[in-house]
Amino acid sequence: MGSRLVMPAVLCILLHASAAFAQTRTVTMEEAIDLALQSSPAIQAARTQVDLSRAQEITARLRPNPVLQWDAQFLPIFTPSAFSVENLDQTQQYDLGIGYLFERGQKRQRRKQAAQDATEVTGAQVTDAERTLAFNVAQQFIAALLARSNLEFATENLASFRKTLEIAETRFKAGDISQGDFLKVRLQALQFETDLNAARIAGVQALANLRQLVGFEALPADFDVVGDLAYEPITTRLEDAQAEALRQRPDLVAARLSVIAARSQIALAQANGKHDLNSTFSYSHTSGVHSSSFSFNIPLPIFNRNQGEIARTRFAETQAGFIEKSTQDSVLRDVQIAHEQAKTNEEIVRLYTSGYLDSAKQSRDISEFAYRQGAASLLDLLEAERSYRSSQLGYRQALANYMVAARQLLQAKGLLK
User: Fold this and answer.
1) Considering only CA atoms, which of 124, 136, 110, 320 is closest in space to residue 211?
2) pLDDT confidence of residue 97
3) Which of 196, 203, 223, 269 could crosslink 147 through cysteines, CB 3.0-4.6 Å?
4) Distance of alpha carbon 118 from alpha carbon 309, whole angstroms
5) How many CB atoms neighbour CB 72 within 10 A?
């Protein structure tokens, strides 16, 4: 009874394990983007810039260390016989002091704010790198879908043409067509073989590029993509897309934060123009007398008031403002171009689906049937085959271009997916 119960349980576990393993070998576009954002070495390296900037915040918050100083004077080192308790108490001098630098002009607060603003800029730049990575992953994913679709079409087309080749060979042996016509049919098969091999190579390249973007350790070597080339209409108006991009594009956000960071640098430079106060408290033991003293010193701001750095940071703020305006113009241009490309590719897809695909298929089927019956010439058949092949490959490429353009519009608006 025990073995009868154990064996089904083991089989169930193995089936679940094999199903889970099979699932890890396929990935959707959204899963590929998520994996890339989690595992890509490039994006992980970019994120360390945020950690580095936060470490600078720790440095900026630090206060000056107090300074401890002491000395002993009039020690009879060269006359050791003079060493005695009375001599040490009545003749020698001992000083012990502690000093501290008081920062003026709110330097610590200014340093802290400047470091925090720099971290904000770095974070926005990393988000922009994630946006670019997401688009690149989607582009390679679509390339893999296109290669797989072309491979399926090439396989189907080659199988169909081989039947035509068999009929041509039968007609050649029966004397219905010449050897020259039969050779033309055989040479046409080379194009279908070439399409098949080209689609295989394109698929391998696209999957390898996709795995590199996601991270080689995140995907197994034999993984595959899930999905189809599909048309989904874009309903976003250009004005709405541009307004959305102006609100959330990470590179524009980074440019705006750079202006704020530049102003923080100005405030820090002005604070650094304020000279700091050095203070010291000292205890002295001299000839049996105990005493204490306070001392203070501060540089006189006659020549150096940090004028050069203040001027530099102000120019940097002006520069950051111009960069923000330039980035805003680039965002509006990117959205306009991406929107126009999406609409243009959408029109091309609609042209194919409006009847050109059906016409090419019907023409190929009619010519093939007529050729098999001996009612059509070889030239008619080959021309119909070329038109059908060209229209199918063009349609698949148009779908891929449209999907890439749609993703590019998402990227232009600042969205990851």
Assistant:
1) 136
2) 95
3) 203
4) 18
5) 12
Is residue 15 situated within a structural domain? no
Q: Is residue 84 part of a domain?
A: yes
Asked if residue 207 belongs to a domain, the reply is yes
Specify the CATH number for the domain of residue 299: 1.20.1600.10
Q: Are 401 and 348 in contact (CB under 8 A)?
A: yes
User: Residue 401: which of 332, 393, 151 has the closest Cα?
Assistant: 393
Q: Which residue has the tokens 């098949």?
A: 196
Helix (H), strand (E), coil (C) string for the chain: CHHHHHHHHHHHHHHHHHHHHHHHCEECHHHHHHHHHHHCHHHHHHHHHHHHHHHHHHHHHCCCCCEEEEEEECCCCCCHHHCCHHHHHHCCEEEEEEEEEECCCCHHHHHHHHHHHHHHHHHHHHHHHHHHHHHHHHHHHHHHHHHHHHHHHHHHHHHHHHHHHHHHHHHHHHCCCCHHHHHHHHHHHHHHHHHHHHHHHHHHHHHHHHHHHHCCCCCCCCCEECCCCCCCCCCCCHHHHHHHHHHHCHHHHHHHHHHHHHHHHHHHHHHHCCCCEEEEEEEEEECCEEEEEEEEECCCCCCCCCHHHHHHHHHHHHHHHHHHHHHHHHHHHHHHHHHHHHHHHHHHHHHHHHHHHHHHHHHHHHHHHHHHCCCCCHHHHHHHHHHHHHHHHHHHHHHHHHHHHHHHHHHHHCCCC
How many domains are there within the chain? 1
* 292 bridge partner residues: 283
> Which residue is associated with the tokens 């990393």?
126
- Identify the pLDDT of residue 177: 67
pLDDT reported for residue 49: 95
Q: Return the residue matching tokens 């999406």.
A: 342
Structure tokens belonging to residue 372? 């098999």
* pTM of the predicted model as reported, rounded to 2 decimal places: 0.81
On whether the CB atoms of residues 406 and 234 are closer than 8 A, the answer is yes
pLDDT value of position 21: 42
What span, in angstroms and rounded, lies between the C-alpha atoms of 338 and 351? 20
| Distance in Å from the first CA to the final CA of the chain | 54
Counting every residue written for the chain, the total comes to 417
Q: Would you state the pLDDT for residue 371?
A: 66
Cβ-Cβ contacts under 8 Å for 256 (sequence gap 6 or more): 324
Which regions in the chain score pLDDT beneath 50? 1-11, 13-24
Residue 12 counted as domain residue: no
Range of the structural domain that residue 197 is part of: 28-413
